[in-house]
Amino acid sequence: MRRISKAAENAAEEKGMVSKMKYVVVLGDGMADEPIAALGNKTPLAYAETPVMDKLSKMGEVGMVHTIPDGMKPGSDTANLSVMGYDPKKYYSGRSPLEALSIGVPMKDTDIAIRCNIVTISEDGVPFEEKTIIDHSASEISTEDCGILLDAVRSELENEVYKFYLGTSYRHCLIWDKGEVVELTPPHDVLTQVIGPHLPENAALREMMKKSYNILVNHPLNVERKKQGLNPANCCWFWGAGTKPMLSDFTQKTGKKGVMISAVDLLKGIAVGAGMGVIEVEGANGGLHTNYEGKEAAAVKALTKDGYDFAYIHVEAPDEMGHQGSVERKVQAIQYLDQRVIGPLVEELEAKKIDFRLLVLPDHPTPVRVRTHTSDNVPYLLYDSTKHEQHTWNYNETEGAASGNFVDKGHEILEKLFATDYIKIETL
């Protein structure tokens, strides 16, 4: 295998003599964790039955990667920017602005975008500031139900300065005209805690959060949700403020035409900002029971029929289960990723005789013990369908660390995926 000039490549393609490598990232959001006593002191990734990932690891490479730059907060925003090859220290301007791109918010340069979760806080008789945050996702509320609640909030709180935009599930957006980037606390960082110390210092934002509770607490939809045993979506929670992002074009940066497959507005927003394609998969909802098969099928079609060189498959479920503090469900989410995404993906690409390189990793850990993100290194698996190695390791945190393979700068992991000659010369 060797490199050829672009002219030679074009000539070879016309004669049907060139096979182009395809590239895939499968990102299990928050999949990394800590050893858990209930799992025999194994992590969920090590405990889960993942025959496909373990098989691929033995024919490929495992290692660890540092996705969160030192000094930055651990989040899916900074971590996924890293995995996609963008140094967060250079490109990160806040989480919500990336999501705003995804849902088509027309941000001005002077706008501030703020994430608006609709969360569950306690409905006891104590003052608002003394209430406790119970659930950052309000039982993974549907977009349809949340849209009804957001309309109720919008009708009373929206004005020329503050505009609300519907996102996905519990994740929405507030645009603050001529606002400022203020320090705001992510709700999943303070689950079970009294909310007072974590409310915004900005008086207007704080008051809107308080008023949103009064608007939503007795909303008929929430009354019905409680009857069904679901957590009420009874308060807006603001966080993730930032300015309009400016990402460099992914294709110009990498030479690859890329597509994003995710249920999460953040990931779709990064893709929009980077000039990548975005595929909407019906039934993909960011939860444990998302449409895994639909995501896998969309990736195969994009790579084999739609002219894409690179597919980024993002699965939110392990992260959500970590936030919920559910060991059993996090293990299940990891097994679904192995059985329903990675296994069929590899099988179909191989059946179609497509040469491909596959990178599997989390963006960050979301340990069930703390129910939020940490900055610890995460394990990666790199597999090349054209080059089978022989190893004994499996894919998990312990064996990734023991391998000795380490990528210190997370934004360089994509270069590791692409670091191969992708033009195979059969005859010239």
Structure description:
The chain is of the alpha/beta class. It folds into two domains: 17-91 and 247-425, Alkaline Phosphatase, subunit A (3-Layer(aba) Sandwich), CATH 3.40.720; 102-242, no CATH class. The protein contains 16 helices and 15 strands. Strands 10-9-11-2-12-13-3-14 form an eight-stranded mixed β-sheet, sandwiched between helices. Helix 13 packs antiparallel against helix 14 (327-351). The protein is globular and about 60 Å long.
Task: Please outline what is shown here.
This protein has 428 residues and is an alpha/beta fold. The chain has helices at residues 6-14, 44-47, 51-59, 76-83, 88-91, 95-102, 143-157, 203-216, 220-227, 250-254, 265-273, 292-304, 317-324, 327-351, 397-402, 413-418, and strands at 18-20, 22-28, 61-65, 112-121, 133-135, 162-168, 171-176, 235-242, 258-261, 277-279, 310-315, 356-361, 378-384, 406-407, 423-425.
Short key terms for the protein model shown above:
five-stranded antiparallel sheet; disordered N terminus; alpha/beta; Alkaline Phosphatase, subunit A; 2 domains; 428 residues; eight-stranded mixed sheet; 35% helix; 16 helices; disordered C terminus; 19% strand
> What is the fold-level CATH name, i.e. the topology of the largest domain?
Alkaline Phosphatase, subunit A
Distance between the termini: 13 Å
Mean pLDDT equals: 92
Structural class by secondary-structure content: alpha/beta
How are the strands ordered across the major sheet?
10-9-11-2-12-13-3-14
Number of DSSP strands? Answer: 15
The coarse silhouette is globular
- How many individual helices? 16
Biggest β-sheet description: 8 strands, mixed
Question: Which CATH top level class of the largest domain fits?
Answer: Alpha Beta
**What do we call the CATH homologous superfamily of the largest domain?**
Alkaline Phosphatase, subunit A
Poorly predicted regions are 1-19, 421-428
- Count of separate structural domains: 2
Radius of gyration: 22 Å
CATH architecture name of the largest domain? 3-Layer(aba) Sandwich
How much of the polypeptide forms β-strand, as a percent range?
A: 15-25%
Q: What share of the residues lie within helices?
A: 25-40%
